[in-house]
Design goal:
The structure holds two protein chains of two kinds. By secondary structure, chain A is of the alpha+beta class. Chain A is built from five helices and eight strands. Chain B is built from 25 helices and 28 strands. Chain B starts with 7 loop residues before the first helix and ends with a helix. Classes of the chains: A alpha+beta, B alpha/beta.
Amino acid sequence: MVSEEFGFFIDPQRCIGCRSCVAACAECGTHRGVSMIHLDELDRLASTQTGPTVCMHCEDPICAMSCPADAIKRTEDGVVHASQKPRCVACQNCELSCPFGVPIVLPGLEQMLKCDLCYDRSSVGLKPMCATVCPSQALLFVPKHEVAALRGSKPLREFRIGALTIRTRNAIMVPDPEIPLNLDASILIEGDL
Amino acid sequence: MAHLPTDASRLRAEFGPHLNTAPPGGWDADLRPERIVETHCCFCGQQCGIKLKVAGNKVVGFDPWEEFPFNKGKLCPKGVKRYLQGAHPDRLLHAMKRTDSGFVPMGWDEAMERTVTEITRIQETYGKDAFAMLSGVSLTNEKSYLAGKFARLGLGTRNLDYNGRLCMVSAGAGNKKAFGVDRAANSWEDIPLADVIWVSGANVAECAPITTDYIWRARDRGARLIVVDPRITPLARTADLALPLRPGTDSALTNGILHLLDKWNLVDRDFVRDHTSGFEAALEAARDCTPEWTSAVTGLPAAAIEKAARMWGEAATSFLLHARGIEHQSKGVENVNSCINIVLATGRIGRPGCGYATITGQGNGQGGREHGHKCDQLPGNRDIENPGHRAHICGVWGCTDEELPRKGLSAQEIMNEIHEGGIKGLLCLCFNPVVSLPDSTFTREALEKLEFFVSLDFFLSETAQHADIVFPSALHEEDDGTSTSAEGRVIRIRKAVEPPGDARTDWEIMVELARRLGKGKFFDHFTSPEAIFQELRRASSGGTADYGGITYEKIEKQMGVFWPCPTEDHPGTPRLFEGGRFFHPDGRAKFIPTPWRPPMEVVDAEYPVWLTTGRVVFHYLSGTQTRRIGFLVEQCPHPYVEIHPRLARNLGIAEGDAVSVATRRGELVLPAKLVTTIRPDTVFIPYHWPGNLGANRLTARNLDPVSRIPEFKVSACRLARTTPDRFPPELLELMAAGKGA
């Protein structure tokens, strides 16, 4: 069981794009070389901002609801697991339905894989691999009360997507509105160049 | 003599870089480790703690070492994947000699004898100093110390230098001038206590990612962040104030800040009076650096300069960090001292939350500049020309003053002298000058003139490809020892596995060569790294970098010991300068006047664009190691040139276009990466690749007059759109590989 006290927090403001999370995810004892994290450059032309995407572990996971083979299970501690190999028919319903774009059906493997919060680690009191190595606090696995100390950010666990309201175990730290959004170096300097 | 033995593509096919993407046996192998070894990352100066999983004399994976206080399990992607170089197919397993058709294996004994014969021949023909040695600061403290002793007493040459010359020597020289000691003033634990953090010329997120954690911890308390860099790096993106100044104008900015601190009465007059000297002279040098003047030189708005001065000047506590951006210049030492001047003027040093540091770039960049493998230095940070310092080392080494050579040439100067014909032989370990020295065409020409070149390496680096004899050496995880991190914390490197094949550790190779050169009496007692460390302790005792009280046992017990640590009952010194006491004989810190002057090469009509170079997070220095690790190469397979869209538009360049970047030294053809996060008058190229992909084909051999560091960060170039058929074949290969990622 993963302790209820601990929460997983994603803080894109602090992401430095180093892909340590992607590198380390593949090293987890159960992932065997396949990373379950996406890390995207949001718009490299205009910014160095990057964004990590891990499973949000929804309270009512749409991936599981859309699975015709009942292959996706959510455990009592709120962790939504990768598809169970004997049941998964690789139909990609989960991949298509997830509003966060998390599950992946690997070609050749015929199974959906996704972040399982490194259950081999988190169920025995360790942090998921990505949150352990993240050098910049963009991915945190900490007691929930500690997050209040984070600068100007608030954890968000409820998302409205169309008519749906989705509640998640994992939280995204809401961006600080004071951070400048225009990152064009040319506006920060003056004179002829 | 030292031409490539066969064409470069054949060497690449045989010796790599090839990519290792999985642990030994593959992902489906039984990877249950037999042992876990707590050690440190083999890459940058953060020296993060890491656990290596070992099975069957192979490193099969990693685990975060959350108990280690510096990084608490955090790692960058290089640290995560470092274990993949252990059982790498490119590892050198046998001694080799160059033939007309390539390298062939040879016996260890024959390789040793040939090397000794050639060293002896060259020195008898041309003199002792005609044989030079280059070493690196990824070596442990023990190997650094031994390299210094081996060159001076084994080879008897004065011409020994190291690749720290391409890294932190400007910081070291500036620190010694100001403080009388060359070390970060604080452990990183003072960063989270600071109210304002000033970062100059440091791409912290990519070159020292763990440091971002310390900066966030400060900002969680409300600290403000000022970042000075021509590029809006990932850390600058979030800064309270980003100052994208024109390359080569760093000390103009800090002089402007000093000017305003005085004008607005934000100087800590009591601290300056009681604990420093030279303030008036430094101020005089900044007298005319008004916001308007500073704006004209740096290209920053005067209002931003004033804002920075307010932020810095009015804070109660502060920490200033800088790195290669200001140090890799022909006035790197002046840039460093100008930064220290604004630290001293506010009196914010030597107490909690008040500090200063250079972010060491190379693994043991700090320790490597303390133990005497610099051309002008003896162990304990002693001066090789100081009679008292020489006498101390002669006493420890058991040699006479006549046997101890004097100051020699620095790294670039050694290469210049090889090119001139004055140096005929070279031993190189842990250094890849073909990729990492500026003006790489010149470097290659120089190596081709050597009569004999011997290299110690674990992969066949681009430099080792020019060698006559190559000894297979050991990886980081194949030896014991210590290293000293950017903080000044001495840590334990633990052996995890035995070297493969005939590979041996660098210290074993040096000791055996010394014996065969007839100098065994100085080296025979070195039977283990710890035996070398015991002598290092005695040699450093009484010096500024005093390791006298540090033992392996104490390092393990305390998870590191900060020097100076003069006696075994001394706990070490995380924070220097407490109580305002500095290391100069009068106990005062010195302001150093730093009147601004232009870089040695400036833009003009022919070369109108500034060129700057640097790292990406996925690669380390010349890439000898990281260009062989699949995951890292997939993230960043090849170099590129970052161009602001305004500049690109003027030149008709679009994203991905082939762009010719030319300087007075050479030309590269690289794909364009259009980003608004760089000044429109400046372009950037990462430097981790060799040959036709090497940024150092473009950089100049201009040196700082004090530190002798080359001006990697400032060149003048011209750009032009060209056609993709001009992309070099190596680039096309890497681009194709990258698309598969």
